[in-house]
């Protein structure tokens, strides 16, 4: 009865491994690039920066404005001729009587000339075209271009970070699934050993303590198997959430390169093409552009201007005003309260900050390459070393099992050999996982993501043969 329960329990543990749809690493990478919200957000920032750059190209174009106005005056503009010399200073009593009578007979309203109505309407087109701005337009366009470059490099940084995250989660599923399989094999082996020990106890060939030791080892293995199963389920959930899928399981096996990549080549690629360095170079260009922009405000601005009247009332002032006018204007800053000197100093500080940060980032990236390369080498050496340890553990388990069946070894020795083999398998899986993590970081930092995907496809082809 207990044996049947054990077989049923083991079959239930195998069930989660067979339900998920297999997804290759290459397909998972393509899927992630399509569904990643972070990548989409960075892409929209890049689109926004590109639109800003296109808008900056129009700064050299002339502006054309349609103006319309309605004005109500306190009173119409009028000219009283009697207030102008010589009439204003003329003494009518000094004139001959006949002239004085003539002037006195003229109504005063006839001496008033209206220039406007009380309500004034006007519509016109105004144009302005800057022809020299002291380099401000060029600087503004350079800043927009550098901002676009910054967003593009940020997008690439996010893409590489997503790649390393995918590798961590993808092969975490593979490792945890392999650990479940390894633990299942251990449980199956310890179950057989327990059943054998139980029969030998019933036949009086071993003491009760030997059988109890086999049973305790089996119970411990079951607990470890349950824990490994939960870890596998969590790894699957993490991968599915990353890929925005409800059903996905890793199908690409873990692998080890036959020949490690060239460290000098990886270092050269990293220091010449890494997006973090290009991003800081873009920030440096922005700071230079800000300096040029602020310095340009100290220089004169020359522009062409024009005005064309579209509509005006029928007043005398409107008749006197020309329908159109063009000209050249110049604006020279003398005293300003916008703190241009402080802004120039701030821009220079930002420039130095970008340069220092770039130098520090270069050192950090060089160190990161060295660390990842050595971690990959160490993991590879550990994998090869554990191959020999595994052969020894397999042979030791075989000998202990034979000795136990012949009564020459205790159950403790036999179980200990079984646990050593399981421990070696677990260590080897962990070493392979660390190897792939280090290799992924090395390829991501040097921009060789396609090489990693290519090696994974080659491994799939080898396993399919």
TrEMBL record:
Q: Which UniProt keywords apply?
A: Cell outer membrane, Membrane, Signal, Transmembrane, Transmembrane beta strand, Transport
Q: Which Pfam families match?
A: OEP (PF02321)
| InterPro entries, per the entry | OMP_efflux, TolC-like
Q: Where is the signal peptide?
A: 1-20
Where does it live in the cell? Cell outer membrane
Q: Which family does it belong to?
A: Belongs to the outer membrane factor (OMF) (TC 1.B.17) family.
Write the protein's name. TolC family protein
Species for this entry: Shewanella avicenniae
Taxonomy of origin reads: Bacteria, Pseudomonadati, Pseudomonadota, Gammaproteobacteria, Alteromonadales
